[in-house]
Amino acid sequence: MTTVLRYGDSAVLVEVDDVLGLQAACEADPPAGLVELVPAARTLLVQFDPARTDVATISRALTDLSIVERPVGEADEVTLPVRYDGADLAEVAEASGLDVDEVVRRHSSTTYVAAFCGFAPGFAYLTGLDPALHLPRRSTPRTRVPAGAVAVAGEYTAVYPHPSPGGWHLLGHTDAPVWDVDRPRPNLLAPGTRVRFEVLG
Amino acid sequence: MTGKVEVLAPGPFATVQDLGRSGYAAVGVGRSGAADRGALKLANRLVGNPETHAALEVTLGGLRMRTSEHATVAITGAAVPVRAGGRAMATHAPIVLRPGDELELGMAQQGLRSYVAVRGGFDVEPVLGARATDTLGRLGPPPLVAGMTLPVGRRVAGWPATDLAPQRQAFAEPVLRLRPGPRLEWFTGSALSTLTGGGYTVTSELDRVGVRFTGPALTRARTGELPPEAARPGALQVPPSGVPILFLADHPVTGGYPVAAVVAEADLDVAAQLRPGQRVRFTLRDRTRAG
To answer: Could you tell me which residue ranges the Carboxyltransferase domain spans (chain B) (predicted)?
Structure first.
């Protein structure tokens, strides 16, 4: 099931169950005029060149594509050491009806999978968060969250790669360099990477 | 020998910008680049550069710089007083600087962002294929500070062919044309008429990421959280307050709030010149021309 929503002059947003499958299909058989694809949680943004195609044509091409099964490769696994000293730890414990130690235990005892990147360079949305820790974002986002902050919001956990504004709940921080533009592959947590958090003293 | 430019004063905020980077959105890297792309391209054309060369994006004015060699520069975008080697000069026209001449921008009288191109381009080190400073993503050259030296490149497209380019007309109350956004249905039926009702004023919370307004709040028809999805320049993203935020060049690659409407791409350069305190009018884009 796919729904195509217009997004401005040169993009459509496709709601689809298998986002990465549709992305693979677009890469295997690119619709005419395709410029760039941006996968997210439930949608794939398809940016097109309005000089070469239009919304109706590319929408038809997208709904006609057959989803491609993505090969399950040897996924990288990364372990990130975390100090659970975040500003929102007590608040998260209270909102989830757990004590702080239990929040830390649940957050650090799961293997997560990087589903997609967004928000900022190298900011990977990690799936697999314990449902007890699913909380809506803070009603007032912080104007500055420090680099390395380990945070949760909704069904995701993430590491802020840079100091930035942010509305997620801060559980702790890691010194692991999740983004380094001088590396051949700047982002440590590419989609598909398995991620574990290790409690530091 | 390649010349260089010494920054004597950056003004309130100035960066190096080109037309940005594409192809990295899936790892969270947005396009960035000049907020007013048309002004950057024009400044480059005025000095005989390819449109893609890097220039300086100067916020509000206040930049002072000096060249080591003869250099041809041009300033576009905001209406700003310019002096070169002590003489008053016009914007939107090539200016020849002699070695040691100081170029000085006053405070912008209309518009917000000026673009200073130099013949040959500012040849700073590219990052992920672009010389754009992404202020949110922290990519590219750092914002300008006094004492910084910027290398000038040598690649040009031809000789400057124009003495003076027309300046975009500035309006006290700029008009931005909207299309319905992908998540308009998350709002009540009056959302578009609220947006086009004329009640929005630009606040001082304005940077390369986006513009915040004061004005009437949109009412949600759907509660709950939107899973994160890709954002675009021009998006009017609506946070829980209900008052839209307009995304500019350094917007986050994905956003978590529903997008009620999208500013036409042709009007994004106008949006990049909005000043704090200015009133802005949103209109629905003419459907017959929308295609």
So the answer is: 26-290
Mutate to test the interface with B, among A117, A127, A155, A159 (most CBs of B within 10 A): A117
| Structure tokens belonging to residue B136 | 């949110």
Cα–Cα distance for residue pair B219/B216, rounded to 1 Å: 9
Contact status, residue A95 vs residue A135, Cβ threshold 8 Å: yes
A-chain residues within 8 Å CB-CB of B32?
none
User: Smallest Cα–Cα separation from B204: which of B268, B277, B273, B270?
Assistant: B277
Residue of B nearest to A180 (CA): B139
Domain endpoint, select from B135, B151, B167: B151
Cβ-nearest to A8 among B29, B127, B232: B232
pLDDT in tens, B57-114: 999 999 999 999 999 999 999 999 999 999 999 999 999 999 999 999 999 999 999 9
Give this complex's ipTM. Answer: 0.91
Domains along the sequence of chain A with CATH: 3-64 (3.30.1360.40), 74-199 (2.40.100.10)
Summarised one tens digit per residue, pLDDT across range A85-104 is: 999 999 999 999 999 999 99
Tell me if A45 sits within 8 A of A22, measured CB to CB.
no
Q: Looking at the complex, does the CB of residue A184 fall below 8 Å from at least one CB of chain B?
A: no
Q: How many domains does chain B have?
A: 2
Residue B160 lies in a domain: no
Under an 8 A CB cutoff, do B291 and A54 touch? yes
Alpha-helical regions (H) of B23-160: 37-46
Q: Which has the closest alpha carbon to A157: A200, A101, A201, A109?
A: A109
Strand blocks (E) in B44-191: 55-59, 63-67, 71-79, 82-84, 87-89, 94-97, 102-105, 110-118, 149-151, 175-180
Do B213 and B132 fall within a single domain?
A: no
**Candidate from B25, B136, B225 with C-beta closest to A36:** B25
